[in-house]
Amino acid sequence: MPSKQKITLPPDRPLNPGKTMSYASKNRVCLGGNTHRDPGVAHSYGGRTMWTRHITVGFCVLLGVLAVGQPAQGQGRSVNLAFRTSVYGKPCALDTTSYVSSRGQRFTLSTVKYYIGHVTLEGRTGTRHILADHVLIDAEDSTSGLIALRNIPEGTYTRLTFMVGVDSIHNTGGPLEGVLDPLNGMYWTWATGFIFVKVEGASPSSQHPKNRLEYHLGGFAHPHQNTRWVTLEFKRPLVMTTHDIAVDVMFDVGAWLDASGVDVAKQPTVTDVRSAAPLMNSISSAFRANR
């Protein structure tokens, strides 16, 4: 019988001696709005390490599939608010539609712009989620009123509150950018600050030149502090679990002017902080949440 010959197999080696190969996954998995990249794990080729690599990658893929569509731990879903402008219950049509007030006075609208800030979602247990930024809503730009409150924890939320206007800190904070840039046409001077609400149009009943209507409302300092708070109770509470929720918030300009008792023939314009209070006092009644 021939003698048995001992055969020695060469040890496993990586393709590039002295280096390890990184298998960082290029796939991104979104969890609760945040994007994470799988960490790179170094493995060598050959032998049992190849099986380890396959098992590890397969397990990570399985976890990724199970995690898709679920919020990450400590995070939540979004409440997507859409602030929309209406007139007597119908979408606001600038420059084209004639409306009739409760006094029987016809008018058209050419501009509707207003600031909101400190948007807060409140829960049954006192939970509060606040968006501190100011938002400039413009009836001419349907995207300006889209606001996303992100990472809302699970729970039941019953009301939405926000301020109409610009708070005193931002009124006295010097030059600003974005929606608070004076170039947006919503700023008077450093002394009087921002215009909180701007509504312009025309009416045959107006004695102002060219039958103009002009309501520029503001005032941040005592005794003419004219920011106002709005609280909207949801008819159906928002129950945050694993899905985003959309809420429409309507601002009815016609209802607001009627509630303010505006007589276009006698008061076609208000452009100073001293006369703004009566109109600002009634503005909260013109908002409602379609929920």
Structure description:
With 291 residues, this protein is mostly beta strands. It folds into two domains: 21-67, no CATH class; 77-290, no CATH class. The chain is built from four helices and 19 strands. It has helices spanning 47-67, 168-171, 253-260, 277-281; strands at residues 21-22, 28-31, 34-37, 42-43, 77-87, 90-91, 99-100, 106-123, 128-138, 146-152, 155-164, 195-202, 212-218, 220-221, 224-225, 228-240, 245-252, 269-270, 287-290. The strands form five sheets. Strands 7, 8, 9, 11, 12, 13, 16 and 18 form an eight-stranded mixed β-sheet that branches. Strands 5, 6, 10, 17 and 19 form a five-stranded mixed β-sheet that branches. A two-stranded antiparallel sheet has the order 1-4. The protein is globular, with a radius of gyration of 30 Å. The model is unreliable at 1-74 (pLDDT under 50).
SSE blueprint and pairings:
Elements: E1 21-22, E2 28-31, E3 34-37, E4 42-43, H1 47-67, E5 77-87, E6 90-91, E7 99-100, E8 106-123, E9 128-138, E10 146-152, E11 155-164, H2 168-171, E12 195-202, E13 212-218, E14 220-221, E15 224-225, E16 228-240, E17 245-252, H3 253-260, E18 269-270, H4 277-281, E19 287-290
Which descriptors would you attach to this protein?
single chain, 291 residues, mainly beta, 2 domains, eight-stranded mixed beta sheet, five-stranded mixed beta sheet, 19 strands, globular, disordered N terminus
